[in-house]
Amino acid sequence: MSRLKAEHLYKVFGRRPEAAVRRLEGGAGRDELRADGTTAAVIDASFEVEAGQIFVVMGLSGSGKSTLLRMLNGLLEPTAGRVLYDGQDLTALSPRELREVRSKKISMVFQHFALFPHRSVLENAAYGLEVQGVARAERAERAAEALELAGLGGWETSWPDELSGGMQQRVGLARALATDADLLLMDESFSALDPLIRRDMQDQLLDLQTRLKKTIVFITHDLNEAMRLGDRIAVMRDGRIVQNGTAEDILVRPANDYVASFIQDVDRSRVLTAGSIMDAPGAAALGDAPATVSAHTPVAELFTPFARSGAPVAVTDDTGELAGVVTRDKLLSALGAPADAPEGAAVEAPARKQEVSADA
Ligand SMILES: Nc1ncnc2c1ncn2[C@@H]1O[C@H](COP(=O)(O)OP(=O)(O)O)[C@@H](O)[C@H]1O
Ligand SMILES: [Mg+2]
Question: Locate the CBS domain: which residues (predicted)?
Answer without folding.
Answer: 286-343
